[in-house]
Design goal:
Elements lengths: L4 H12 L5 H8 L3 H13 L3 E8 L1 H4 L2 E9 L5 H9 L4 E8 L2 E8 L1 H13 L4 E12 L20 H12 L5 H8 L3 H14 L2 E7 L7 E8 L7 H11 L4 E6 L5 E8 L5 H10 L5 E7 L5 E3 L4 H12 L3
Helix pairs in contact: 1-3, 2-3, 7-12
Length: about 325
């Protein structure tokens, strides 16, 4: 199925707030309740939406998001190596990006985790080089309250907030009336707690999604630059100005002057044009590019560091 701009807008709305009602979305986009509902069901059907979920913020978990690139000598069994990479605890997603090279997305807790993961990956058979790219910013065009825009805040939940969260871990879109029955709190009180949770920055009501199911092409650029002439912020701003809708993430190689740019490109004919424009930019000393499509072999790992932390909070609260 081809997905248009409205499908993608709805996907970002739910990514930013998985509790957004069909009624509110219908009013915002001036469509009927059923039209919005059918659109969302289509997103679920094509696999763009995997799951509706509650996630604690990175600040609450004490984690940082990173991209890891893994190079090999070419002797590996592809699926076997992807599985071995995926078994590493911090890894959330693995993909083969081209011959002898793989990429992974992970969450780590500080420098110790950085280098432990690097060491474990370097020990795998056929692996010759592992490079860590801390993610500096993500999805600048996502809705302002989206978890993609911020690491969030570290906060202390109240007993009643935890009672509501307990219900939402069962079904993040659970109606207020049903939460009221389970918690014995009034609907008015629950509505207030939901606002507090959404505005507090400690937790996100979100979706797990596959952006490649949108039909876009993921263009990855590793750009080497001269630190004496320009900085990361300037390069990031250049991409925000030139490709505001396409820009997905900005990352940095730990020990080299290389910035990683991830773009989601709708029109495949534009990929070569974008690469050429970036190569001509004054800050680019060299540009290494690769493309990830829905046909690329990808292994997703939805390990949820939030759930264990939430379970501990519920246990401490006697819930």
């Amino acid at each position: 199925m081809d997905l248009d701009w409205l499908d993608k807008a709805l996907l970002w709305e739910l990514f930013g707030n998985a509790r957004a009602s069909y009624q509110d979305l219908a009013r915002k986009y001036e469509l009927s309740f059923n039209a919005i509902k059918n659109r969302v069901k289509k997103l679920e059907k094509v696999g763009a939406i995997h799951e509706y979920t509650v996630e604690l913020s990175l600040a609450m978990l004490g984690l940082e998001s990173i991209i890891v690139t893994i190079e090999t000598d070419g002797s590996e069994n592809i699926k076997s190596l992807i599985n071995q990479i995926g078994k590493q605890k911090p890894i959330r997603m693995v993909t083969r990006i081209r011959n002898r090279e793989y990429a992974a997305f992970a969450f780590v807790a500080g420098a110790t985790d950085f280098f432990e993961l690097k060491m474990n990956l370097e020990s795998l058979k056929a692996v010759t080089k592992v490079t860590i790219h801390p993610i500096l910013s993500t999805s600048p065009y996502a809705p302002p309250k989206s978890k993609a825009r911020s690491r969030g805040q570290k906060i202390d939940f109240t007993q009643n907030q935890l009672r509501v969260l307990r219900c939402l871990t069962e079904d993040v879109r659970m109606p207020v009336g049903e939460i009221a029955k389970k918690t014995s709190l009034t609907p008015r009180r629950i509505s207030k707690i939901l606002r507090e949770l959404q505005e507090g920055g400690g937790v996100h009501f979100t979706i797990r999604m596959d952006y490649l199911a949108l039909g876009d092409i993921n263009l990855e650029l590793n750009i080497q630059y001269d630190e004496a002439k320009t900085g990361l912020n300037e390069i990031g701003k250049w991409f925000q100005e030139h490709y505001p809708r396409e820009l997905w993430t900005v990352s940095q190689v730990l020990d080299e002057p290389i910035i990683g740019i991830s773009l989601l490109v709708e029109d495949p004919t534009k990929v070569g044009e974008i690469i050429n424009i970036v190569r001509e930019a004054t800050f680019a000393e060299s540009v290494d590019d690769y493309v990830i499509t829905s046909q690329t072999y990808v292994k997703m790992h939805y390990r949820d560091p939030s759930q264990h932390h939430l379970d501990e909070l519920f246990k401490e609260a006697g819930l």
